[in-house]
Amino acid sequence: MKKDSCAQTAQTKSEFEPKSLMADTAEGNHRLSKKEYERLLPDLRARLVQAQSALRQANFSVVIIISGVDGAGKGEVVQRLNEWLDPRGVDTQAFWQATDEERERPPYWRFWRTLPARGRLGIFVGSWYSQPLVDRVYGKTRNSHLDRALKRIADFERTLAEDGTLILKFALHLSKKDQRRRLRDLERNPETHWRVLPSDWKHHQLYDRFTQTAEKVIRQTHGPKTPWFVVEAANPRGRDITVGRLLLKSLQARLAQRRDEKPKKTSSRRPVEARKPGTNLLREVDLTQSLSDKKYRKQLGKYQGRLGRLIWAANARKISTVIVFEGWDAAGKGSAIRRLTEAMDPRLYRIIPTAAPNDEERAHHYLWRFWRHIPRAGLCTIFDRSWYGRLLVERVEGFARPEEWKRAYQEIKEFEEQLAESGIVVVKFWIHISKAEQLRRFKKRQEISYKRYKITEEDWRNRRQWGAYEQAVNEMVLKTSTESWSWTLVAGNDKRFARIQILKTLCLSLGRAL
Amino acid sequence: MKKDSCAQTAQTKSEFEPKSLMADTAEGNHRLSKKEYERLLPDLRARLVQAQSALRQANFSVVIIISGVDGAGKGEVVQRLNEWLDPRGVDTQAFWQATDEERERPPYWRFWRTLPARGRLGIFVGSWYSQPLVDRVYGKTRNSHLDRALKRIADFERTLAEDGTLILKFALHLSKKDQRRRLRDLERNPETHWRVLPSDWKHHQLYDRFTQTAEKVIRQTHGPKTPWFVVEAANPRGRDITVGRLLLKSLQARLAQRRDEKPKKTSSRRPVEARKPGTNLLREVDLTQSLSDKKYRKQLGKYQGRLGRLIWAANARKISTVIVFEGWDAAGKGSAIRRLTEAMDPRLYRIIPTAAPNDEERAHHYLWRFWRHIPRAGLCTIFDRSWYGRLLVERVEGFARPEEWKRAYQEIKEFEEQLAESGIVVVKFWIHISKAEQLRRFKKRQEISYKRYKITEEDWRNRRQWGAYEQAVNEMVLKTSTESWSWTLVAGNDKRFARIQILKTLCLSLGRAL
Question: How far, in Å, CA of A99 to CA of A106, rounded?
Fold first, then answer.
């Protein structure tokens, strides 16, 4: 990247960063003497630690990306930040070669798993930017690939930012001349010789190409909530102080902002919005469909056998499956799942029941806990309730604010797109029953001793919200059905019919994918 | 295994299992009719669900191993348990092929990572028994290897059991004739044909060898707290009911036992035991050792350079490093760690600061959180405080009961042995300072604004316990120093001397390993 133009970009677009500081960055640090550095440092460190201490109590995390040309001192900056901050609140992530557990999942799985929890800072040396950038510079990919990768990055960062994550991206800049000097100096000194890798000199030869591509990357992924800061790195002291001050400023600004915000309201139920006259998909489900016991037994054997074979075939071809079960309370999710798993080798599947999140999960974006459970290549994860809870219970009960659940449509679409792109078969079931059938089942459950635990006050409360849920389900199905896979609305009043419909659908989807 | 002798074994040794039930197992279930099964089932299911519900509030986890000959229906039993229990409280684990993240760590890493949390059940199909057993049957290992593996298993299970884990191991038994019949039946039916793997027939040919070895395994790893139950599997209904009833009985017995126990006392400080007249290792550390600033700078550069190269060389040879830092408050752990990391590529190391455990960690054995962070091959983990907290703060503050911290000596030894066996370099530092020096540092820290956060009331409280800590440290060092690596007691009054001592020691240990 050319320093001036990019610094300009950052200066124009970022809301966090005062002009004077940017001027510092662009010019000031050339002149930062050791004396000046030592004068500035104690105050900066004290404030950083104070801000970090406030962060610990706050409800957001900080993602810091340190990138830039080789020799600009990325490692040193990371070092410095770890020194200035309380390291107990910092996670430094370096994306070393992907492991097979990572390679066998969508590419962003490894990034999701390393995101810092609320109250913590994550420093990333190497990040979701590295691969797209390097691949393009080395000519392994075309511009169109890069564009798509940048779109994905923008989506990812927007998702995090909207969840409250403070994102700060630093591009350390060094002129080609300075880079050459720096690499030579390191090499000449026997004690730092080891720091220079062969790839560093290779990158040096590609300097122009590299900075040109980086500039494009920065331009396309810079935004008020995902700012890039271009930092001149020729003078290490100036570089470090600048990064430290930018971090401090942004952190302080965000902390102040949080204090002004009203606390999130969770108790008040928002009134259910007026029912739209449009299609009510649930009402179109023919709940009178049923299956005789004889037919059921025959088909159960047939489709279970087929499913068992398909799941093994998928395993052999390293194709993963994600099955989502949603439905009314007592719709029969559990028993339907068992009809699937009866046919599947226990080594090939995993059931993830979705209950209230634990504190580690609560400390992350709501999708984090589901990313965790995306299966490795060739395996199957069955979600008994899922990320769609955001659009169902969290919406209806007011656990998520309207702006939160509304943006979930887009977030979920992007999430599932990533699954699809990496070849995962996603099948989603909503098991539908009538309100009357639910009541019958609730009552029956209370009569059977070993099923009594299944009925709680919550179930009755949900039932009273039937209308609100009906609307939420409708919108969910309409807005999260994509071409390649849509929701299957299962006619659940007759359990036998429902189970066969599910088995059939699943076999069909797997068959198509194989 | 021969049914009779093993059933006998289980009958004699297990404390949980009433004789009548074992008689059931050995003979009764041959005759269990469908009618009888359906008569017994509702009550069993209701009780199981009740017990599981009580478990959710209890402070222990349940580990269930389902093993046995092929065709005995391991998968079916797992299926059944998942059906009878509330699946939201059950984790089913199948140890599919190890991933590289698993292969690059000590073999038990993958077992530790899948252990159920307190209040939950973990069902293991395939377990720590599979590999040693199969390797021996196929002649890949000798008897002595098997013995060593069984010793490790016994240690592992003892560790879990002492932590409160309820361990139940089921060996499903089938005669050679029954096995042949079962495999043939499955193969003949086109809908279950896929269930029979080529390896199943191969195992069948090795039936005698297999059961003979299994019998040995069972005998050597059976104990009152780690019981094996041999279950006749020729009649599936009888098999399932037996497993269900044994699980229920054991669970109920444990739950009743827990209710009788007195609550764990945490508040009362035990009096410090009388100081033993033996060696006081800490007093032998020469705290007057120091280094001039000039010498320090020279040696710092030298050893940092060397360390940087060694860490890269270790990476190239896939050798991992685990560095443990313990020491008095204000001993300079943090700054010593920084002197190491300054020399290391940030992609190669990770600092794990050990603070209070989070709720996921608290729900497991105390070593679980450290197992999590064992580095992959070629990488380095630095623990800023560690598992030794069990023998230090937890002991002195009474967070761990005497029997708990006393058995930690053995647990830690076994843990570190496993690290050593898989080629990990373990280096342990206790940074020692005098009580007077600590006071000086506390006071100084309070004067420097950005260090003030480091001094808390807890530090002063710990200081008042100096004598108790001194004794604890002494015992720790004496009892957890093994031949291959011992503790390095660092003379910390002079920070410069300490840092160089640490760097030198680390370079030496790494150098020896490479």
Answer: 12
